[in-house]
Amino acid sequence: MSLSETAEPMSSSGSSRSSGQNNSGPEPSAWENFLRSPHTVIRWPGRPPIRLATDTVRAKPAVTPQVSMMIGVTAIGLGVWGTLFPRSVKRTFGIAAPAAAVFVAFGARELWSGVNLASDPTRTDVLWTRVGADVFDIAVLAALSRPTNPKRGNARLALGAVLAITALDVLTATRMSAVKRNCA
Q1: What is the tens place of the pLDDT at every residue in 147-180?
Q2: Cα–Cα distance between 109 and 136 in angstroms, integer?
Q3: Which helix (H) or strand (E) holds 165?
Q4: Most buried by CB count within 10 Å: which residue of 25, 80, 156, 173?
Q5: Contact at 8 Å (CB) between 172 and 68?
Q6: Is the same domain home to 83 and 172?
Q7: What is the rounded average pLDDT for all residues in the chain?
């Protein structure tokens, strides 16, 4: 069996289950859910086979986990910028706070949420935490939009982007909170 082949899902009685079959009976066990989940078997010479399975997420439409993953990847990029180059962030937006505060408030927070969403885009707790952090970002960027800030144009542009991202975060978090998962 190659990496691209998958084993056929089996029920607890050992017979194949068709995907169109109505499951009006009792709830499937955790083992049956595992067997039905998308999986692949990796065979290494001289080693026992490894079965990799993933949880199937049911979202309407199923694009929500992909959006969540893209939010996470974007957050990783912003987190790397804020973590490795906090002085650049300060200069870009006219922030008067110390670089360490920018590192923690923006870089580390974005990096944390990005890594968590990229590793598991279905984590609603991380998505809702992002929404709260977006509110913080909006407050900071609104304060940076004051007429005395020479970089207020950058702050206003970032504020518009954060408002759009906040709407996307709220939509994604709301939809992922309503997702039914097939694991027990």
Answers
A1: 999 999 999 999 999 999 999 999 988 888 887 6
A2: 11
A3: helix 152-177
A4: 173
A5: yes
A6: yes
A7: 78
| Domain termination site, one of 16, 32, 54 | 54
Dist. CA 182–CA 179, nearest whole Å = 10
Cβ atoms within 10 Å of 155's Cβ, excluding its own: 21
Residues 14 and 98 in one domain: no
Sole residue written with tokens 């066990």: 29
Residue 59 within any structural domain of the chain: no
Each of the 184 residues of the chain gets a pLDDT tens digit; together they read 444 444 444 444 444 444 445 555 666 666 665 566 566 677 888 888 877 666 555 545 456 788 888 898 999 999 999 999 999 999 999 998 888 888 888 889 999 999 998 888 888 899 999 999 999 999 999 999 999 999 999 999 999 999 999 999 999 888 888 876 655 4
Q: Look at residues 120, 126, 127, 5 and name the one whose alpha carbon lies nearest to residue 54.
A: 120
Give how far Cα 172 sits from Cα of 77, 121, 125, Å: 19, 10, 12
> How far does the chain reach from its first CA to its final CA, in angstroms?
28
DSSP 39-82: EEEE--TTS--EEEE-PPEE-SSTTHHHHHHHHHHHHHHHHHHH
